[in-house]
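Q: What structure does this chain adopt?
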Amino acid sequence: MENTYLWLKVIHIFGVVLFLGNIIVTGWWKNMADLTKNAQIIAYAQRQVTLTDFIFTGGGVLILLVAGMLNVYLHDMSYETKWLGHGMAIFLVSGVIWGAVLIPVQIKQSKMAKAFASSGEIPASYWKLCTTWNLFGLLATLIPIANLYFMVFKPA
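A:
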């Protein structure tokens, strides 16, 4: 049973790497593209933000959730344990931000980017959505980074 715990932990950590790595790198590349003010570059980057979020952020979430929950179930852990309960709650808060704000904003920006890629004119509404995406994206990035504390130090 010990090997099961460790293998699931490895898989869980792999999910965390995909998840955190992608949200950090995606934020960086999107902001670098936006700074160019070049409609074609921004449109391409925006498509990639949506695609990589689906594949890597979503995939990472799925992997870390399944591996983590399997470890809880198979090894008689309890979400009432402070570090585990807080970790799950923090993770859910980040998920709510992604689902309620970031994904809808990304979808709107992708549709806008598809239109302005050919016209070359980026509407002011795109930049307004960028402000929302950046603010909530920073929050949704810092929250899982803070979650590392609970997962690593496991405070009692």
